[in-house]
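Hello,

Following up on my earlier ticket. Below are the two sequence lines again, exactly as submitted.
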Amino acid sequence: MIQHLVTLPVLIPMIGAVVLLLVSQASDSRRRQLSVALCVAQLLVSAWLLSRAASGEMLFYALGNWQAPFGIVLMLDRLSALMLTLTAVLALGCVLFACAGEDIRGSNFHGLFQLQLMGLNGAFLTGDLFNLFVFFEILLLASYALLMHGGGKERIGAGLHYVILNLAGSALFLVALGVLYGATGTLNMADMARRVAVMDGDQAALVTAGALLLIVVFSLKAALLPLYFWLPRTYAAAPAPVAALFAIMTKVGLYAILRVQSLIFVDTPAAEAITTWLWWSGLATIVLAGIGVLAARDLRNLVAYLVLVSVGTLLAGKALGSTEAVGALLYYLPHTTLACGALYLIAELISQQRGKAGTRLVRGRRLHQRHLLGGMFLVAAVAVAGLPPLAGALGKLLLMQAAEGAARLWLWPLLLLAGLVALIAMSRAGSVFFWASYKGAADSGRVTRPQLAGVLWLLASAPLLVGFAGPVSDYARATAEQLAEPQVVIFRLLGESPALQFGRLATDEGESP
Amino acid sequence: MEALFSLVVGVLTASGIYLLLRGRTFPVIVGLALLGYAVNLFLFSTGGLHTHAAAVIGESISPADPLPQALVLTAIVIGFAMTAFVVILAIRARSELGSDHVDGQQGEAGDAK
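Thanks for your patience. The regenerated structure is below:
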């Protein structure tokens, strides 16, 4: 019985989404209660999975009892558990915030939100490449609808670009899968890893091509230079709770890169090319996004560029490759995701009280609840700029310590400058919002209780990640060590009996969903 | 057969990418559809191209690989839904933005009519 619980992070939102779509006639408060309850349930389940994974246990679940490598497997290791928990925490904050009224500006917000969570959770759990594609499509389809929730010119325009770009990306993903399947004859990640390791000649060249194509697709999702130009406009146009949830969408790309590179393409010719590419594009992303942060004339755009800075930082950290670096980036990742999410929510609160000026960095009406909003903005700004005493500083410090030799010369100045740039931009934005205002305040757009709960829930992570820095960084380091030993996954999942003896044609996977 | 097949896939991909780079939403959607066909054909070919080979063991001497066929089915379903979605979205964008240009407004004079 207990082994079936691994499927819950996918099942809860799936069933929840269907129920929410069916009861679309029910009262708003009912649907809100149900949606929040679903998020809490996911949080509990993922916390339980996290505690299982923390003990070094790996859980595998063969769907329909089709044994790997023939069927689709879900696999839970430390990395998946970490990402699942992060998603659940972020989702709860976003849903709480949306319950203040954002959800009834369009139809079926909560149902779509749960579908998006199902896609995210599935992508983090699956151990099968084609299944990863399917979950990517689910989360993308839900994100298209969520992005345009509430309508309006800006959202439709940005949505069109986002959809077309991602459809092209999906086509590329399928090509990559086709190449890899053609070369290896399997789609199971662990099985593919085993076959790739013993491959040479033409087949190895094909695998390299497939691997590079996959990385391009994942870089598009992660928004790495030169594939990030869609992000600022899309995120700035999205409704606040959706934009906050999107903070984890770029991390899906990062997760996928981490997963395939550490499991499948270790020590292949492709791995070296990927690392070099990630390193330089990651650094270039930091630079360009830093310029974007300074140039942004609107808080939402500014936060979008801050998301990009964090993407660049994380991917450059990934390219360092060492266990310390991966551990450091896994410590930094939850912090930056939650801080960016919280900033989007705070931006929405600020724009509520500024009337027409919205989040643009211009003189505007005086804010009604200056002290509350200012306090939250300050905490979020310190968190996102990576200043002590919050966790961002620790994460960056760990990352900088992990860099060695020539890498240090590049990474240190860029990371520190990026922090400085974020600091300048956020203090400029803060002084415009809270000090440079006209006299006389209109009593409108007070912060409601669910909104406050949502923001505080996300903001609380920053001090908590410092308070529990020891256990969290131990976990992150253990995750990195687990990722560095892909052969353990392969052994536990497939055992000694190599399916390699089966002929190429007999290699048959289960029906895809 | 392989030469013909790869030619078809190549031409479809090239036309798809060309149309994808156009400035109006309709050609872009047709381009996405063509790209989708090309990808589906490509996926189908990854199991190897056979004639008179059923994908059922025991029906023929050398059965074809059934997995790519399952993958293509999945990809077709997803691609079909996505095309329907993007068509509706393009219509909505046309009515909201008042133009069927992908940027939501008429470009410079050199724009394709």
